[in-house]
Write a structure and sequence with these properties.
Helices cover about 20% and strands about 35% of the residues. The chain is α/β, with parallel strands linked by helices. A hairpin with a 2-residue loop joins β2 and β3. InterPro entries: AAA+_ATPase, AAA_lid_6, ATPase_AAA_core, Beta_helix, Carb-bd_sugar_hydrolysis-dom, CbxX/CfxQ, CbxX/CfxQ_RuBisCO_ESX, P-loop_NTPase.
Length: about 800
């Protein structure tokens, strides 16, 4: 057949006319067309499954977009198997097992096609097909928007996925499409997804938003390259990489993400250049697992909306930040776990509410020529095995410039700390560190503050205008593992007295009290500057102390608790006799005063803890004896670092008294994983050891849960002398509590009310909601309320009417 133009028109008799023949369907006309023919389809709805197998042009009439509707009942509405041209059609599919538009072969051009469907995929490209798809839209709330599979490719220009029940655009099976200026939104899965070895996705100038999954997801050895793209307003992470995935981002913008802006795991690799990450709810960069790596150059991460570090590196991962900016975040960079590493070069970290750089659990960080300003802490090397190098860095306007604790051992060279509120460099709790050629100016506290006999090395350092002194070496008993204390060589200060050597052969001033594990660890800024070292943390106002006999009398007056009273008396006797033996010049047995209280709620644990503190104060064992009650929410923060600060603050409030931790088992949940409760426990254990004479710690909770807690944390268990079990109250004891309440509030139990109360307390359910003494008090309050409702109806009630509680005043059983 000679090449020509095929005009297809719709007749009243539902027949088709093509040049010299008549056809019963559009499919028949397609079958008869030759290569190069043009089929212009008249407006209408065609219930056919079309297959284009020749290089023809199939189009709707000009100026009437969407007027030609291809809408079969089932199957694939339109299949293309040739380098044809298809344009100006509306394709509708209903088959959940088939795509609406399938491209299987050739390099067709698909232009201005609108797909409204509930199919497995809106557009599916597979095999050797390489289509060019322009200005097409896909609305497919039942499946994938565009799927490129099994080696397929092609170019998609100015296309839009307006809805997808799964991924917006999915690439797998070694497919490799290119997207230019495309938009994907309102997908129930990922916006862009590439998975599988040799699968590759390239996107330029694209936008992904309003998706319920990740904006971009690359997994299982797939690769992707995004240039000048925007990802925002996702429900899950902005970008997710997993299992050897490789992604390059150049000039991209990721913002308004409620979870992690970018999350990498399992040996994935990300290269970022001139890209920005902002307004994220969790981490800006979250990098996990050995072999996982991020290389970021000239990038910016800022304006966190959550309470998590901007950059999180853990489990052996690596991050390189070169010429980057991180600002307006709770914490800038957290590196944790052995094998994890961060290299930061020529970068700026500022407006950091807590810690700019935190290194813990054996991780390493190296910062070269970086600038940190307006942070609570510039850099904090937290524990044994954690280290790295700070070289040529400046820290300006922090509360504390660099903190080194618990065996960490960094090298700090040619760094300057300017105007710290509390200290330039602070080392405590067995921290080490080498400081070479460093400088502190304008400190509100000390320039270099080294306590606990830490083996820190200072060489050729300089301090100027430090309010409390350039150098302070306070040895609060020393740390046996820390060696012989600081080494100071060729250090200078603008103080007239120069540097006070730490060695014992010279007159060295030391603070009268250690500041503890963390010292004055910077927390939130306060308007009023606090001294870096305090002799004692202020406690509650002093009250006239009662004698131990008077306090024990109050303990004895409590209802029930016979075994508890015996335990407390035995412990008190041991302490009292030990004190008297010391006064007589005899050796006294060491008595650990920290206790574990187990039992159900409402059994008097808090009351006994308060009385125990008073007893110890009356014996001169504690200075004040006050009670500070806390629970998990008071000790555990949302990110590493804030937990240690909260725990230190609670411990300081209890100094001279009792720290009572209710439901302590919540600090070590069974499914703890990376739970920050462990940090509270570690901090607490160290504080209890360092300040065993200053604070008594009592941990309390349900019996079974506390037994598990002590088994899981042997370091905690070893700090406590004994466990005291608080048994549930029996009905007679609950009745006695009600009688005491009535007497205290000038009520009386009418005849028969006592017997009714016994029956009530015998029948009341003893499940987890049962509150023991609390239940008894609540029962009394309910009786008083019902009594008031009854007596209020009397015109002139008598004294008996106003004071007698009857059985009918009892509440209903719960």
């Amino acid at each position: 057949m000679a090449q020509g133009t095929v005009q297809v028109t719709h007749t009243g008799t539902s027949r088709w006319r093509r040049r010299t023949g008549e056809y019963a369907s559009l499919a028949a006309a397609l079958e008869a067309a030759g290569d190069g023919d043009v089929l212009t389809v008249a407006p209408g709805t065609y219930r056919e499954n079309l297959v284009v197998q020749r290089t023809v042009t199939l189009r709707g009439p000009e100026g009437s977009p969407g007027s030609v509707r291809i809408a079969p009942v089932d199957g694939v509405p339109l299949t293309v198997r040739a380098s044809a041209v298809v344009q100006d059609l509306l394709v509708e599919g209903q088959d959940a097992a088939a795509p609406a538009l399938l491209v299987e072969e050739g390099a067709p051009e698909l232009t201005d096609i609108r797909i409204v469907t509930r199919s497995a995929a809106g557009i599916e490209v597979r095999g050797g097909a390489r289509p060019t798809v322009r200005r097409c839209t896909v609305d497919n709330p039942a499946g994938v928007g565009i799927a490129v599979l099994d080696g397929g490719g092609g170019v998609f220009e100015d296309c839009e996925v307006v809805a997808a029940g799964q991924s917006g655009i999915a690439v797998r099976g070694a497919a490799h499409p290119r997207l230019e200026r495309c938009r994907v939104h309102h997908a129930s899965g990922a916006g862009l997804s590439a998975t599988g070895e040799h699968s590759a996705l390239e996107a330029v100038g694209c936008e992904v938003y309003e998706v319920k999954g990740s904006g971009v997801q690359v997994t299982a050895r797939a690769t992707a390259h995004l240039t000048d793209c925007v990802v925002h307003r996702t429900t899950a992470d902005g970008v997710t990489l997993d299992t050897d995935a490789v992604l390059t981002l150049a000039d991209c913008r990721i913002h308004d993400i409620p979870e992690n802006a970018v999350d990498l795991r399992s040996r994935s690799v990300l290269t970022m250049t001139r890209s920005t990450v902002r307004q994220f709810g969790r981490n800006g960069l979250s990098v996990w697992d050995p072999g996982t790596r991020v290389d970021a150059n000239q990038c910016e991460i800022h304006d966190s909306t959550g309470d998590y570090p901007a950059v999180w590196v853990s489990d052996g991962a690596t991050v390189v930040l070169d010429s980057c900016r991180v600002h307006d975040v709770p914490d800038a960079l957290f590196v944790l776990d052995r094998g994890s590493r961060a290299d930061v070069v020529d970068s700026d970290l500022w407006q950091v509410r807590n810690t700019a750089v935190s290194v813990s659990d054996g991780a390493t960080a190296q910062l070269d020529d970086c600038r940190i300003r307006d942070a609570a802490t510039g850099a904090w090397f937290r524990d044994h095995g954690s280290g790295g190098t700070l070289s040529g860095c400046t820290i300006d306007g922090a509360q504390t410039g660099v903190i080194v604790t618990k065996g960490a051992d960094p090298t700090v060279e040619r760094c300057t700390v300017d105007s710290p509120a509390e200290a330039g460099f602070y080392v405590s709790a067995g921290g080490r560190g080498s400081f070479h050629g460093c400088r502190v100016t304008g400190s509100g506290g000390y320039g270099f503050h080294v306590i606990d006999g830490c083996r820190t090395t200072l060489r050729k350092c300089r301090t100027e205008r430090c309010a409390r002194g350039g150098y302070e070496f306070a040895d609060a008993g020393g740390d046996p593992a820390s060696g012989s204390g600081p080494v100071v060589e060729d250090c200078t200060s603008d103080e007239s007295a120069g540097v006070r050597p730490p060695a014992a052969q010279t007159a060295v001033e030391t603070t009268s009290h250690s500041t503890g594990l963390l010292g004055a660890i910077p927390g939130q800024r306060t308007t009023e500057q606090e001294p870096f070292v305090t002799a004692q943390t202020p406690g509650p106002p002093e009250q006239p102390a009662r004698s131990s006999k008077a306090v024990l009398g109050e303990l004895d007056a409590l209802v029930g608790l016979d075994s508890v009273k015996r335990e407390v008396r035995a412990l008190t006797d041991m302490i009292e006799v030990g004190r008297r033996r010391q006064q007589a010049g005899l050796k006294a047995a060491s008595v650990r005063r920290h206790l574990v209280f187990t039992g159900s709620p409402g059994t008097g644990k808090t009351t006994v803890a308060r009385l125990y503190g008073e007893i110890l104060a009356s014996l001169g064992v504690l200075e004040k004896g006050h009670l500070v009650e806390v629970s998990r929410v008071d000790l555990v923060g949302e990110h590493i670092g804030s937990t240690a600060i909260r725990t230190q603050e609670a411990f300081d409030k209890a100094r001279g008294g009792v720290l009572f931790i209710d439901e302590a088992y919540a600090l070590s949940p069974e499914d703890s994983g990376r739970d920050f409760g462990r940090e509270a426990i570690d901090t607490l254990v160290k504080l209890m050891e360092d300040h065993r004479e200053a604070v008594v710690v009592i941990v309390a909770g349900y019996t079974a849960e506390m037994e598990r807690f002590l088994r899981v944390n042997p370091g905690v268990a070893s700090r406590f002398s004994r466990t005291i079990t608080f048994s549930d109250y029996v009905p007679e004891e609950l009745l006695r509590i009600v009688e005491q309440q009535a007497e205290e509030h000038e009520y009386r139990l009418a005849p028969g009310a006592g017997e009714a109360l016994l029956k009530y307390f015998t029948a009341i359910p003893k499940g987890p909601a049962f509150g023991n003494g609390r239940t008894a008090r609540q029962t009394f309050e309910a009786m008083v309320e019902r009594h008031a409702g009854r007596v209020a109806q009397f015109t002139e009630p008598s004294t008996d009417d106003l004071t007698l509680l009857y059985a009918e005043d009892l509440p209903e059983l719960p």
